């Protein structure tokens, strides 16, 4: 009978002990968990080590007042742990890197306290079994350059339910305000337009603009103004974000339009063999002389040189010489200037000042026969030369102005057209144009 009573008592003690042990497990660490049970890579363990059961990951149980741009070193932020579900609740949170090193400093709030120095925070007592429990505490951000920080949190809901949640935050690395300005195109011809543009970066992201120029005179308050400089100009974009500022320069080079000056119109003696050229040009790539006639140039691609008029040029009475200056890109319009050279048929030359020389031919035009009268040569013997349009001499004979009032010449057998009649002494000459009609 005693043996049976002992066995019964033993069984009673075992049951009581089991129930008590179960109860202890069920309320393990109601006043806060021990340090190092957040489930972080550095801690390696979480609540199931004591509570049993299994763990699952949830989102949004850890939130903060840290802005989306990231934390600023030394700034204090509020961290919130929100625990939901049925059953008593507890938590442990720690800010760490992947190696488990503490990042920043925790400070406890209402109904929570620190463990492990300032590395971990946990509850003071288990929360409500039915309602959602919220725990707030603060965190002082670590030194600048720390980089990303992860808050690791482990939560218990009831006896064997463990939830794991994380909050990852970046560091707000202030980017200095900078700006890059450009001009399109950067090389223009005077009078053309260029599009300025400035692209800022960094700073607060809210920018104001102010343009200036060297030489002074240009201002604008928009990021992309259009300019029309007449000379090479540097434009400076001043960008501000309210606290920081940056300057960005860009240059617009200006090519001036080409210019050309062929020279003044000229009247030359009919017998002239060459006409001097002394053109002027600026802002050109190449130059070129051209003629409306059939003469030639000794250096058509040089500003200075000579033009050799043809007989046809002289016969026409004038020729137009054009100097063209080819532009330099990006200018598009060449510059050209014309010079008219006139050839005077009625030209005479006397050595003696005050002497009037004269030569009369009649009839002119003629059918072949004409009279020639010369005066003003001091009665000196000379030579009369008659040439056709090609310059070929068809008549050449002596002539003494004092011997006769007039002398007859006969071109009956020659073709119609224009002829040149010239009387010349050793020091004087006179030339006229004669037209033969038949």
What features would you describe in this structure?
The chain is mostly beta strands and 438 residues long. It folds into four domains: 31-169, Sandwich (Immunoglobulin-like), CATH 2.60.40.2550; 178-255, Immunoglobulins (Immunoglobulin-like, Sandwich), CATH 2.60.40.10; 259-344, Immunoglobulin-like (Sandwich), CATH 2.60.40.10; 347-436, Immunoglobulin-like, CATH 2.60.40. The chain has three helices and 34 strands. The strands form nine sheets. The chain has a six-stranded mixed sheet, with no helix packed on it. Strand 16 and strand 17 (245-255) form a beta hairpin. It is rod-shaped and about 155 Å long.
Low-confidence segments, given as residue ranges, are 12-27, 347-354
How big a fraction of the residues is strand?
over 45%
What CATH calls the topology of the largest domain is: Immunoglobulin-like
Tally of helical segments: 3
Most strands sheet: 6 strands, mixed
What is the highest CATH level, the class of the largest domain?
Mainly Beta
Radius of gyration: 56 Å
- Which structural class should the secondary elements be placed in? mainly beta
Question: What is the molecular shape?
Answer: rod-shaped
Helix content: under 10%
């Amino acid at each position: 009978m005693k043996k049976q009573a002992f066995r019964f008592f033993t069984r009673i003690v075992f049951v009581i002990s089991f129930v008590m042990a179960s109860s202890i497990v069920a309320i393990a660490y109601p006043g806060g968990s021990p340090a190092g049970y957040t489930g972080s890579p550095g801690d390696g363990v979480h609540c199931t080590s004591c509570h049993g059961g299994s763990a699952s990951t949830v989102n949004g149980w850890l939130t903060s007042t840290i802005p989306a741009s990231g934390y600023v070193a030394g700034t204090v932020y509020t961290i919130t742990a929100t625990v939901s579900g049925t059953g008593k609740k507890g938590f442990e949170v720690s800010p760490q890197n992947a190696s488990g090193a503490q990042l920043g400093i925790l400070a406890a709030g209402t109904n929570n306290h620190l463990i492990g120095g300032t590395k971990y925070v946990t509850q003071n007592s288990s929360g409500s079994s039915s309602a959602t429990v919220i725990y707030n505490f603060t965190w002082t951000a670590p030194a600048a350059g720390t980089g990303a920080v992860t808050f690791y949190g482990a939560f218990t809901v009831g006896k064997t339910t463990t939830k794991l949640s994380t909050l990852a935050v970046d560091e707000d690395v202030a980017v200095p305000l900078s700006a890059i300005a450009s001009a399109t195109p950067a090389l223009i011809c005077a009078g053309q337009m260029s599009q300025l543009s400035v692209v800022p970066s960094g700073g607060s992201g809210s920018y104001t603009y102010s343009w200036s120029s060297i030489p002074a005179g240009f201002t604008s308050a928009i990021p992309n103004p259009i300019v029309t400089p007449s000379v090479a100009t540097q434009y400076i974009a001043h960008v501000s974000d309210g606290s920081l500022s940056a300057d960005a320069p860009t240059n617009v080079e200006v090519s001036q339009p080409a210019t050309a000056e062929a020279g003044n119109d000229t009247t030359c003696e009919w017998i002239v063999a060459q006409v001097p050229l002394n053109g002027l040009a600026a802002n050109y790539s190449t130059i070129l002389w051209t003629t409306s006639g059939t003469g030639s140039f000794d250096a058509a691609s040089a500003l200075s040189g000579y033009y050799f008029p043809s007989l046809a040029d002289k016969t026409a009475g004038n020729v137009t010489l054009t100097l063209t200056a080819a532009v330099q890109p990006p200018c598009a319009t060449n510059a050209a200037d014309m010079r008219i050279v006139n050839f005077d048929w009625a030209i005479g030359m006397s050595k003696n000042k005050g002497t009037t020389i004269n030569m009369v031919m009649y009839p002119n035009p003629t059918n072949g026969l004409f009279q020639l009268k010369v005066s003003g040569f001091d009665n000196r013997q000379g030579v009369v030369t008659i040439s056709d349009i090609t310059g070929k001499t068809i008549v050449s004979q002596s002539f003494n102005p004092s011997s006769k009032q007039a002398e007859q010449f006969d071109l009956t057998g020659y073709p119609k057209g224009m002829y040149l009649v010239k009387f010349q002494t050793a020091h004087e000459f006179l030339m006229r144009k004669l037209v033969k009609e038949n």
